[in-house]
Design a protein that fits this description.
Layout (H helix, E strand, L loop, with lengths): L1 H21 L6 H4 L9 E5 L5 E5 L2 H14 L2 H5 L7 E4 L9 E2 L1 H14 L1 E11 L9 E9 L6 E13 L2 E10 L1
Parallel strand pairs: 3-8
Antiparallel strand pairs: 1-2, 3-4, 5-6, 6-7, 7-8
Helix pairs in contact: 1-3
Length: 178
Amino acid sequence: MREPLLCAIFLIVLSICLLIGLTGGVVDVEAFSASRDTSGVSLMVEVKEGQQVRADISPFVAFAEIEQAWNMGWVDSIATFFPEEKIALRLDKNAPESAFFTRKQASYMLRDSFRYRATESFKFLEFKYGKSGKKPPLAKAQWSFRREPAGKIIVAKVQVTLRKEGERWLISGIRIQD
C-alpha cells in the first residue's frame, strides 16, 4: 500500500523538477496555466454524472499521472484522460495509422492490450511542449512488457499526445510501436 503512494509522490516531485529544468529554473505560470489555481498543481472540476476530476494546469502533471497509471495497469485511470468524442489509438504496429475511437472503444482496446501485455515498466523519456501552445504537448515513452508470464521482455516505443479541453489536458492520441 505504501509503495504506490511513494511512487506517486516521487512522480509528482520528478515532474516538478522536470518542469523547472525545462523552463530554465523559473516556472512561467502564464505559459502553462489556463486558470489561476493557487495550489500550483490542479483544481477539481465537476463533470457529467456528478463525477469530479482534476483540471491540470500543466501537461506535465497529466503525463506523470498517465505514467503512474500505466505502470500500475490502471486502465480506468488512463481512460479518465480520454476525450468524449474521439481519440487516435494505435496499439499495434499492424493497426492503421489514423484510426479514431470513442472513449469507450479506446478503453476496451487498452484494457485488452494490458491483458495480453504484462507491464514491466513504462517511462516517459522525452517531452515536447512549446510555451506558445501552437503544437500540442507530446511525450515519448519506453514500455517494457512481457506477452507471456515467463516470456522475454519486449520494449516498445509509445507516443502520447495531449490536447487542452476546457480546464483539462486530455489524451488526443496514443501510438505504440513494438
